[in-house]
Specification:
Two copies of one chain form a homodimer. By secondary structure, chain A is an alpha/beta fold. Chain A is 26% helix and 30% strand.
Chain lengths: 352, 352
């Protein structure tokens, strides 16, 4: 449960962001049905897991899902009977605007917990423990990032440098660092005072809107106009497209977090993965003693650290190591773990 | 043309053996349509190439094809209008018996040129030059093997050790060696007096039958009885099944060549491959500068020595080296070159 013994928190609304173009886990993930909506790990899709992790069972208020028109159908189907609001973005305009559209639907005194829908979190309890701390800090006026324990010098993530310690196990953020070069990333991991920026945030709604007004008024103005002219259709809210283009799309990190003086972070170690490549997905999946994982029908002979995932044909593999094999309809992908970073640039993935 | 300047040879009948279970190049090669009947290299199938290489255009007499009932349909279709006899084996009983059935259909004075139908020969002129020499030796009463220049210490082939030199560029065979261990194979290649036994033979028909009578009378008796009770149907000759089982199936090497005192060999270097594995097939195919070969639609990124062959789905490959990828209907095979030796033992290949 989210309430602490010593204080009562405002309601915490999950704000689940569903964007993504479906290129990095191509050909399983496609533009028409990208990563959040696929059961990549276990039986739930990543989106379903994000909803379940922040359900009313754990004391969360009703969620808002922000998505584009292309994916509303998947969101509706996978939300099932969850009491939720679906904010249908008139256009994909990056996270600052998406979060603003959600904030305008909420009580300024509430807490919004911004969660990507395409990440994997193995330890839901550790996640919710961090939510308690982050929400407590947010209630005090901080804009709080989740600082995910940096276990390896990844160059594909942003990093947070932590400073002065705060209440609730939190820290001020000294600096946001965009994807670093390898040597920098190694320094960060060695220093122990840096964490990965996983794109999970807790804000008091009013604080977020105030900071957006201070640092990116054009985004807030556009979002307000789109919200004011929007229409409700069942549990879907459609902000108006007409008013939603007079700003430069920016990430919430760039637009707000790097500019505010109230940036904080809570450290968390929760078995997190952004599932940003086939390699990363394989690391998050169960493996046998040889490090192999099979989804579908396959025979592996003399293989190590091989992931085979097939919807259909049988796959026979001999003698491979550190390789991912994906069969999906009319596409076959075979890549080394290392090469899986390049999947999004393949013709098939880029020209969907 | 086959005639030499100094002598006239008896007619040379190609005897093309079509057996094989279709496991080593699975899943492209299947029990129902094994290796000889597939266009693995270029547009002709291996069988069509074997027929074309020994056609009347080059002075050969009409061919005999020895095959089983399961493959007669493929043989008929791929022979087209070739003037040929198809000997339909009542059962697959190894090469000594198959060759005997063919020999009994021919004039004892003729030369039979026994050719497997599942090998690749890049240099048809070199092949026919060797045929001239082999046929000349056969006309003199030798049982002649083609001794294929041993370019590497293969452990999957038998070897011939050559002795005293004969006319027509030939040699006596001192010894037949079954598949050797690696160290032995390396000795053979270093010595320079050993050649691969490619299963290509030239015999005077009468000589072969005499030697079979001397060393394996049971095989000859069975073949004679089956032949005598056989029936002609169009260009197909069907030896009788009833008489064709009272002998132990043996290869012609084991039954005759290793026992005769008239064994000879002609050396030949003709770009030969038994296409005995996907690895071997890749070596026989054209490659690009990176050593890659693509049949079908594929995108290769950062690959070396990769063969992709797909009937259907597009294949995207990143970062692999020395790997073969085969897509065929409901089966996908991904194997290292080295691992391709094990393909025949896969469940899919073994349980067709």
């Amino acid at each position: 449960m989210l309430q602490t013994r010593t204080m009562s928190l405002p309601p915490i609304h999950p704000v689940i962001l569903c964007g993504g173009s479906g290129t990095r886990l191509w050909p399983r993930s496609r533009a028409a049905k990208p990563k959040p909506f696929l059961p990549l790990i276990g039986e739930k899709t990543l989106f379903e897991a994000a909803v379940a992790r922040t359900s009313s069972e754990y004391g969360f208020a009703s969620p808002l899902v922000v998505t584009g028109a292309a994916h509303v159908e998947h969101v509706e189907a996978q939300l099932g009977k969850t009491d939720a609001t679906i904010v249908v973005e008139p256009a994909a305009r990056n996270t600052a605007a998406a979060i603003a559209l959600a904030a305008l639907r909420l009580d300024p005194a509430a807490i919004m917990l911004v969660c990507p829908s395409d990440h994997h979190i193995a330890d839901g309890e550790a996640f919710r423990a961090a939510v308690r701390n982050a929400a407590a800090l947010a209630a005090e006026g901080y804009l709080v990032s989740f600082g995910i324990e940096a276990k390896s010098p990844e160059t594909g993530f942003g990093y947070l440098e932590r400073g002065e310690s705060l209440a609730h196990g939190g820290f001020r953020v000294v600096r946001f660092i965009e994807k670093p070069v390898r040597a920098k990333a190694e320094e960060f991991v060695a220093a122990g005072t840096y964490a990965w920026n996983g794109g999970i945030f807790a804000f008091r709604v009013g604080t977020f809107l105030d900071e957006l007004a201070a640092h990116r008024p054009a985004i807030l103005d556009s979002a307000r106009a789109a919200d004011a002219a929007g229409s409700q259709q069942g549990r879907q809210f459609h902000p108006s497209a007409a008013a939603f283009d007079s700003f430069t799309p920016e990430s919430v990190d760039y637009a707000v977090m790097e500019n505010t003086r109230q940036a904080a972070m809570v450290p968390v170690d929760m078995g997190w993965s952004d599932i940003g490549s086939w390699d990363a997905l394989h690391l998050a999946l169960d493996r046998d003693a040889a490090g192999n994982t099979v989804q579908g029908e396959a025979e592996l002979v003399g293989c190590r650290n091989v992931l085979v995932t097939s919807h259909g044909p049988r796959v026979s593999v001999i003698g491979l190591e550190d390789v991912v094999i994906v069969i999906d309809g009319d596409e076959v992908l075979v890549t080394t773990h290392e090469g899986s970073q390049l999947v999004g640039k393949l013709h098939g993935a880029a020209n969907q």
